[in-house]
Amino acid sequence: MKFTKVGALAAAALFAFTACSATPGTGGGDKGTIEIWSSLPRQGSNKAQTDTVVNSIKLAIDEAGGKAGGYTIKYQDKDDSTAATGKWDEAAEIKNANDAVANDAVVAYIGTFNSGAAKLSIPILCQAGIVMTSPANTYPGLSKAGKGEAGEPDKYYPNGCQRNYTRTVPADDLQGRAGALWAKQLGVTKAYVLDDTELYGKGIADVFVNEAPNFGVEVLGRDGIDGKATDYKALAEKIKAAAPELVYYGGITQNNAGQLFRDLRDAMPDVKLMAPDGVFESEFLQAAGDAGEGAYITFGGVPPDQLTGAGAEFIKTYSAKYPEAPAEAYTAYGYEAAKVILAAIERAAATNPADNDALRAAILKEVFATKDYAGVLGTWSFNAEGDTSLTEMSGNIVTGGEFVFDAVIKE
């Protein structure tokens, strides 16, 4: 690694690390200890969801015997949320990324959960050559040119650093279109669109707005909500006056989605309510209560109980080991991210990297080289942009206070 600190303390720290860790590529049964970190919101209403992602990462490492390529794997569960906000926090995510860069042993970073957090950590990790694999980010602009804001995604790779960002979940340019298609299939001709103004929520709402006319759905209006508002009664009355058949919400549970749905349902008992996977978690069901009943929820993939083959076996194994934390939407995606990274470490180790800089570079290369990977999500590949080749989208309906799979959404 290239250390920027100088002085006796830095020299001592470097000596301590060298003394305690074997040099990568020297052969033998133990090449030393390397670290994989995850950075996820571990407080607030996301915790139930991220508990299952963390569990799935641990399961993948346990199944490998805690080793890969001759290295002992140490896993660190990092929190990018705060108790005060109850969701991801900008300063917390930046600190996690900087801490990872400063730790010579860190070779891979599983995260983030929220797309807004990813845009902060990608450039930090990129300049250190640390691969980043997200099990949950879906904002297109993080990887796809012309699918987000101006300058994306190039601005996340400063100074010409090599792309380091991958994700095991399909992006929102696919999911937003699927939502518009599903609305058509439900017989909707007029919709009103809301978003929580965050990168993910606004981004997927933009896609829905752009795609809706292609399916004969007129967008009557568009508003951003204040995620900390006491209520949305005035907004609900405004939307009611426009007489939509469906209200689409682009956003996450943590930005007051439960209260929003309750106020919308009070004002318009018969209106259809639709949202993407930002609310596809048990916390939304609790927050929305009866108002969530009948809501249409899209997801970039299929829910845990619809996985087949290796996926179904994984859910069976996971459920037996973690009965207190039932699998949620992104559980399998966290497991897949960890398995892909472990496989990349195996291949990278075979090149006998000379030091940890070289090891990071080799792992980054091997993750992007993932092709025809037969995993729990099916057989898939990463493309040059770091996106998965998986494109399947599903529709789920809240029924009896639970998410119930309805159908794969396809034209």
Folded structure, characterized:
- This protein has helices at 8-20, 47-63, 90-102, 115-126, 172-185, 199-211, 233-242, 257-267, 282-288, 310-321, 331-349, 356-368, and strands at 33-40, 67-68, 71-79, 106-111, 131-134, 165-167, 190-195, 218-224, 246-250, 272-275, 296-299, 373-375, 378-380, 394-399, 402-408.
- It is of the alpha/beta class and 411 residues long.
- The chain folds into two domains: 8-170 and 310-380, Response regulator (Rossmann fold), CATH 3.40.50; 172-299 and 393-408, Response regulator (Rossmann fold), CATH 3.40.50.
- Strand 2 (67-68) and strand 3 (71-79) form a beta hairpin.
- Helix 5 (172-185) crosses helix 6 and helix 8 packs across helix 9 (282-288).
- The relative contact order is 0.14.
Summarize the structure.
The chain is of the alpha/beta class and 411 residues long. 37% of the residues lie in helices and 19% in strands. Strand 14 and strand 15 form a beta hairpin.
Keywords:
single chain, alpha/beta, Rossmann fold, 2 domains, seven-stranded mixed β-sheet, 12 helices, 37% helix, disordered N terminus
Give a topology summary.
Blueprint: H1 8-20, E1 33-40, H2 47-63, E2 67-68, E3 71-79, H3 90-102, E4 106-111, H4 115-126, E5 131-134, E6 165-167, H5 172-185, E7 190-195, H6 199-211, E8 218-224, H7 233-242, E9 246-250, H8 257-267, E10 272-275, H9 282-288, E11 296-299, H10 310-321, H11 331-349, H12 356-368, E12 373-375, E13 378-380, E14 394-399, E15 402-408
Parallel strand pairs: 1-3, 1-4, 4-5, 5-6, 7-8, 7-9, 9-10, 10-11
Antiparallel strand pairs: 2-3, 11-14, 12-13, 14-15
Helix pairs in contact: 2-11, 3-4, 5-6, 7-8, 8-9, 11-12
